Structures are given as C-alpha cells and as structure tokens.
Amino acid sequence: LSVIDFTDDNIMINIDFPSIPTAGDEFSFTCTVTVPERLVYVPTGFTISYDFSGNMIVADNNPNATNSSVMRNGNVFSRDISLNPVKTSDATEYFCEVAFGDLGADNDNNGMLSVTISSPIMSLVL
User: Fold this and answer.
1) Please, what is the Cα angle at 58 between 53 and 64, to 5 degrees?
2) pTM of the full predicted structure?
3) Exposure of 119 by Cβ count < 10 A (0-12 exposed, 13-18 middle, 19+ buried)?
4) How far is residue 47's CA from residue 99's CA, in Å, rounded to a whole number?
C-alpha cells in the first residue's frame, strides 16, 4: 500500500470545444476534470468562468448560457455549458476551475472559443 499527497499536480483539467460554432447556432462545450483513481472526495467547487479569478461565472453572466450538473464517471468529473444561440461576443477565453477544499487543492485551465459568422445569401430578382 502506498499513500501519496494529494496536490494540484494530481488534477488534470481540459476544456473541450468540439468544433467552431457559427453565430446563431446552439453550441455546447465541456470541462473535464480527471483525478487519481479511487479518490473518494468530490469537488467542492466546479465553475466555468470568463476570468481567472472565477468571479464572472458564465451561466450567471450570460442569459443564453446554461450549466449542466456536475457528472461523475469513475475518476472523471465533467460539466457542460450550452450557449443558445451562440453570439459573436461569446468568442472569448473561458476558464474551468475546480476545488477540493477539504484537501486544500485546486486547479484551473483555460481555452479560447472562436465563433464564425455565416456567409450572407444574396438573391437577385430580375
């Protein structure tokens, strides 16, 4: 049996933007947190925000955004954000932050979302 200290280095965080959305479409992206196997603690905080400090939480500051509940699959926790509709102003940096307060560990990661604009359609009537 070996026991290791639980530190920030034990937490891996990833923000997954599955594609580049087009303004006006519905779009979801995921924050995934992987912790050591057999960890019995759950995160005491799990936020997706617009800023490193976690003060500008996406779902609280964007009326078009909704959070999913935190889901767990073994040693992987995840949370989705849905933007409906995506706006060009949603093209910004997002931060995923997780805290394990009882263990004194927290960590974060960030990613940049790009949004495209659909090409205008023009019809000529003669």
Assistant:
1) 165
2) 0.79
3) exposed
4) 9
Helices within 17-78 (DSSP H only): 58-61
- Taking CA atoms, 67 is separated from 1, 60, 62, 97, 116, in Å, by 39, 9, 11, 14, 23
Query: Are the C-beta atoms of 27 and 58 separated by less than 8 Å?
Result: no
- Residue 109 CB contacts under 8 Å (≥ 6 apart), including other chains: 13, 14, 15, 31, 95, 96
Q: What is the pLDDT of residues 26-85, one digit of tens each?
A: 999 999 988 888 777 778 888 888 877 667 888 888 999 999 999 989 889 999 999 999
